[in-house]
Amino acid sequence: MEPHGHVRIWEGIEIMKWIARLANIVVCLWLVGQPALCSAGQHGVLIISPANSALSYVTDDSQRQLATVKGILDYGMDGNDIVILQNPRNDHQPGARLLVIDRDTFHIVIDTNVNDIHIGSTMVPTMKGLVVKSQDSTFYYSGFDGKELNVFEFNWLTQSNRKLNFLTDVETRGLNPALTPVSYGFAVTCNRLNDSSLVVLYNTISNSVVLKLANPVKASFDLYGIPDFGLIEYSHQTLYRLTDKSFTIALVQPSVITNLEIATDICSQTRGGEPYLIWGSNMNALASNKESISEVVFFDPKRNITLQQQPLGINAWKRFAPARDGYGIYFVEPQKGTVYYFDASLGTVTGFADTGSHDFALWNGAAILDGN
């Protein structure tokens, strides 16, 4: 017979789960009644602007500051929510600010300080390293457990923070601070010492390790989970496909796509039910700064063909965001501070808003997080 104390603990956990679900329903019902910030037919982007350390929503005819954000930022998103962790001090002390933003309305639904989240500092001012599961009101992040980096799960409704103990002490050495979302959870690179490394794929539903890929081809941190295709890695002008489309079977001989000039993160979208990749490159002298791009590429990984390679005609900042319909990107020209939309179906580039920042040197850490 189970001890009464264990029964009470179990009942308490179940009650907390129901409270979290009820709170989530209340938040969703409230958001239904909130007006969207972007009118029909307008463009809009959520952007971290260097001019005033502002997180702002910018449209054709307005600019609304949602929050002031300074220091190290780590963010991630799924189809419903954007989550941002802010370490304003840029140090190794615990404590972070948590922002949760609804992607339909771009309203902040949670803005709070969490004392036991410890993301530390990184070499990258703004990093896309969180994996968000909004249906469970949770996100996953790489943070300090007192001595080393490890992987944690945080529920933003119950404010519970849990370390996932699936990595050994040896494996956490050289842990990549950025997690890569895959269909059932995430992938993380670890044990990156002496030119060896390990990629671990973790299922957040079953709380179990699915795959361990020892010594991947080039052991870089540039991993991407492409829906209906698999886990890919980019290193030295080459894309390597490491798993099948279910992310459960490692390819004995990874497929290779070579001679690629990729100067940005790789984004994935869907057209006609098929995945494709988007990246920026700086193939001409227009993009003389390594943080800028001169053209955008749309690529079909299944057929290994370039669908579209379009010069932008503008010295664009490399932290762009794909349009949700899959047929364009949003980007900024830092010298003018103008936000542009590239329509891939028409091949046109249209400027529609001004960020207010006209100095290229200020754009370190700036990024377009989302667009609609």
Strand content: over 45%
The N- to C-terminal Cα distance equals 56 Å
Largest sheet: 5 strands, mixed
- Overall 3D form: globular
Which parts are unreliable, with pLDDT below 50 for 5 consecutive residues or more? 1-36
Structural class determined from secondary elements? mainly beta
Rounded radius of gyration (Å): 21 Å
Query: Helical stretch count?
Result: 1
Structure commentary:
8% of the residues lie in helices and 49% in strands. By secondary structure, the protein is mainly beta. Among the domains are: 1-32; 261-372, no CATH class. It has a 5-stranded mixed β-sheet with strand order 7-6-5-4-8, with no helix packed on it. A 4-stranded antiparallel β-sheet has the order 3-2-1-29, with no helix packed on it. A hairpin with a 2-residue loop joins strand 21 (267-271) and strand 22 (274-281). The model is unreliable at 1-36 (pLDDT under 50).
List the helices and strands and how they pair.
Layout: H1 4-32, E1 44-49, E2 54-59, E3 63-68, E4 72-77, E5 81-87, E6 96-102, E7 108-114, E8 126-128, E9 131-133, E10 138-144, E11 149-155, E12 160-163, E13 180-182, E14 185-193, E15 196-203, E16 208-214, E17 223-226, E18 230-235, E19 238-243, E20 250-257, E21 267-271, E22 274-281, E23 292-300, E24 305-317, E25 321-322, E26 328-333, E27 338-343, E28 348-354, E29 367-371
Parallel strand pairs: 4-8
Antiparallel strand pairs: 1-2, 1-29, 2-3, 4-5, 5-6, 6-7, 9-10, 10-11, 11-12, 13-14, 14-15, 15-16, 17-18, 18-19, 19-20, 21-22, 22-23, 23-24, 25-26, 26-27, 27-28
